[in-house]
Amino acid sequence: MIKNICTSILLLIMIQTSNAQTLPKGFKSIFDGQTTSGWHTYGKTTVGSAWKVEDGVLHFDPALAKNDQGGDLVTDNEYTNFHLKLDWKVAPKSNSGIIFYVNEDPKKYKNTYNTGLEMQVLDNDGHPDGKIEKHRAGDLYDLIKSSSEPVKAVGEWNTAEIVCKNGKLTLVMNGVIVVETTLWDDNFKALVAKSKFAGWEGFAVSKTGKIALQDHGENVWYRNIMIKEWNTMKITTGCENGM
User: Fold this and answer.
1) What is the pTM of this model?
2) How far apart are CA 218 and CA 96, in angstroms?
3) What is the pLDDT tens value at each position of the chain, 243 positions in all?
4) At CB < 8 A and 24+ separation, what contacts does 133-138 make?
5) Taking a C-beta distance cutoff of 8 angstroms, is the pair 124, 151 a contact?
6) Which runs of E-coded beta strand occur in 82-157?
7) CA distance 139 to 48
8) Distance CA 204, CA 99 (A)
9) Are 121 and 97 in contact (CB under 8 A)?
10) CA 209, 109, 212, 28: dihedral to nearest 10 degrees?
């Protein structure tokens, strides 16, 4: 029996070590592939049943979003300087988004996008937003158009990265840098002033906030959600080797 216990412990250690080795240096997983631990529906303490975990994948199923079981999913933790990396895919005609620097104050801000910036997740050809400039997959939603569109076909996995370091923002799609900008300076404020967000109190002003996955009412899947944080920062260009 002792031999069996030792064997089980050894196997557990090997599995944990194997899982740890799948993460790039400095990253930690914020989705364990089995539960929604570490996340909750915006403005609530629990997760609605429309967000399902299936075979290591987080799936928003709109068919289950009735009776207030949907809503944007947000992290329990807040982040300041970070590198977020995840995979996403959408069904035909679907829309979602990765929203960051969210100020979760539901009494003041009804939605995550009232305060947070968004990297668009979209079926470019099938969803109406695909016809709108700055609303396509990989865009900094309604603010900056992607410099290229390396997004894959509907139903295929894409890897998105959001790198925020001392105000320098870099968006990466499938290994290609698609957006680079500096947050909160005069040029950025001018971008906001020309967007749909002009005059929105609280929009894109927080320098620390939560990360959200958007319920836009269509099927979307996320997996391999991981993050690297920097607590003590030096001046940086934001997207150097290794990010």
Assistant:
1) 0.88
2) 8
3) 555 554 544 544 444 444 444 899 999 999 999 999 999 999 999 999 999 999 999 999 999 998 899 999 999 999 999 999 999 999 999 999 999 999 999 999 999 999 999 999 999 999 999 999 999 999 999 999 999 999 999 999 999 999 999 999 999 999 999 999 999 999 999 999 999 999 999 999 999 999 999 999 999 999 999 999 997 444 333 444 445
4) 134/195, 137/173, 138/171, 138/173, 138/178, 138/179
5) yes
6) 82-90, 95-102, 117-122
7) 28
8) 11
9) yes
10) 20
Dist. CA 177–CA 161, nearest whole Å: 9
> Distance between CA 120 and CA 99 in Å, rounded?
8
Compute the distance between CA of residue 83 and CA of residue 230 in angstroms, rounded to an integer: 9
What is the signed CA dihedral for 32, 172, 221, 113, rounded to 10 degrees? 100
Q: Which long-range contacts (CB under 8 A, 24 or more apart) does 48-57 make?
A: 50/215, 51/215, 56/223, 57/33, 57/221, 57/222, 57/223
Report which of 10, 19, 51, 67 is spatially closest to residue 220, judged by C-alpha positions: 51
Structure-token match 């959001």, residue found: 162
Do 103 and 80 form a contact (C-beta atoms < 8 A)? no
CA of residue 228 relative to chain centroid, distance: 13
Cα 209 from chain centroid (whole Å): 12
Q: Is 177 exposed, middle or buried (0-12, 13-18, 19+ CB in 10 A)?
A: middle
Q: What pLDDT shows up at residue 236? A: 39
